[in-house]
């Protein structure tokens, strides 16, 4: 009897999700500095935030000599924002080819095979895989037929994945994957997983919640063993997502349910050192994490609004320093508030490039 295990081949420029503990795709919390920080603390792979295919199509791609990043930008079309010659281009996506690209998965929001392919081709040379978001329950995604809305159209979702496998995965030799949620019954979930595994994808992530469920509701794992069994039979790596708190728990859950990998989401948003095992030191104190984050954010000229948001997730809200930092108006102001004197000169340079206050009043609320 043939006892060999079937495996969908991993393309030359792709990556195998097996044995990996990874950063989940999160809007705002999955931008470049957060991904680099997660990798610094031991994440095996990082998913970028869901990026809508139509927002990528028509962008201008540039290599940034200051941050060594590849930036995809577009000029705002709103006339109130583009008056005069000083209209700023909006960043749609940024990646750091030297520090993350072989470990970066680009997650795409889409409802169309053709636009998915067109957008994916723009970033495919610089990432290890393309992942289709078929699990987001938020109206901005589902109202456009994307995200969790695709779960109700299995054939259409399969056609998107098949097109990406053929026209992007095979051409650029990277993997195509999908992230889904549980359906109303185990039978429907199983049928969906079997269909999607037949498209040629290399990985499938299952968020162990149904579409109506919210993050505060406990993840449901009673279908997980069935899903991992189906994926193993089909040769597709299965990554579990939902209430995974740290690497130690991820590894334990992978063993318990037979999952090939695990995603950490909100726990990594609050403290990305959750990617370390207890033997590696476990969770770092918030101040150490914030210092590491600021160093990276300054290095890559991160968008100021995103930096402030991320700091608000990393710093305990009850501390006085939380108000000082979130009330700051610039990188220099944050560095002063945190006592990061060694970063102050560099922070001033970033503030000047981003058009932020550079004087001492940058610390005022």
Estimate the mean pLDDT confidence: 93
Q: Rg to the nearest angstrom?
A: 21 Å
Can you tell me the number of structural domains? 2
At the first level of CATH, the class of the largest domain is: Alpha Beta
Largest sheet: 8 strands, parallel, barrel
Query: Poorly predicted ranges (pLDDT <50, ≥5 residues)?
Result: 81-86
Number of strands: 12
The total of helices stands at 15
**At the fourth CATH level, what is the homologous superfamily of the largest domain?**
Aldolase class I
CATH topology of the largest domain: TIM Barrel
Kindly, what is the distance between the CA atoms of the first and last residues, rounded to a whole number of angstroms?
72 Å
Largest sheet, order of strands side by side?
A: 1-2-7-8-9-10-11-12
| Quaternary organisation of the protein chains | single chain
What's the helical proportion of residues? 25-40%
Note the run of SSEs as H and E: EHEEHEEHEEHEHHEHEHEHEHHHHHH
> Strand portion, in percent?
15-25%
The outline comes out as globular
């Amino acid at each position: 009897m043939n006892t060999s295990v079937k495996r969908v081949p991993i393309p030359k420029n792709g990556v195998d999700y097996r044995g990996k503990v990874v950063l989940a795709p999160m809007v705002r919390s999955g931008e470049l500095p957060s991904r680099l920080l997660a990798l610094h603390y031991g994440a095996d792979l990082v998913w970028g935030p869901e990026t809508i295919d139509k927002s990528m199509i028509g962008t201008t791609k540039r290599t940034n000599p200051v941050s060594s990043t590849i930036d995809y930008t577009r000029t705002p079309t709103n006339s109130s924002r583009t008056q005069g010659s000083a209209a700023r281009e909006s960043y749609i996506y940024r990646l750091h080819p030297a520090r993350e690209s072989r470990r970066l998965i680009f997650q795409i929001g889409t409802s169309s095979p053709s636009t998915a392919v067109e957008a994916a081709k723009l970033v495919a040379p610089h990432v290890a895989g393309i992942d289709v978001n078929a699990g987001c329950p938020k109206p901005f995604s589902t109202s456009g037929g994307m995200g969790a809305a695709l779960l109700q159209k299995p054939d259409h979702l399969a056609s998107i994945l098949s097109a990406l496998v053929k026209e992007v995965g095979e051409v650029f030799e990277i993997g195509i994957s999908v992230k889904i949620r549980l359906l109303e019954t185990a039978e429907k979930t199983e049928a969906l997983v079997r269909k999607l595994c037949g498209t040629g994808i290399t990985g499938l992530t299952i968020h162990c919640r149904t579409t109506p469920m919210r993050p505060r509701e406990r993840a449901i794992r009673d279908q997980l063993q069935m899903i991992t069994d189906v994926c193993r039979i089909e040769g597709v790596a299965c990554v579990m997502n939902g209430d995974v708190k740290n690497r130690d728990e991820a590894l334990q859950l992978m063993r318990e349910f037979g999952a090939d990998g695990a995603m950490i989401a909100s726990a990594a948003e609050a403290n990305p050192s959750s990617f370390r095992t207890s033997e590696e030191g476990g969770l770092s104190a918030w101040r150490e994490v914030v210092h590491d984050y600021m160093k990276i954010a300054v290095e890559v000229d991160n968008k100021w609004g995103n930096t402030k948001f991320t700091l608000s997730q990393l710093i305990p809200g009850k501390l006085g320093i939380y108000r000082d930092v979130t009330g700051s108006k610039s990188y220099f102001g944050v560095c002063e508030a945190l006592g990061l004197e060694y970063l102050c000169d560099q922070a001033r340079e970033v503030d000047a490039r981003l058009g932020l206050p550079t004087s001492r009043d940058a610390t005022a609320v």
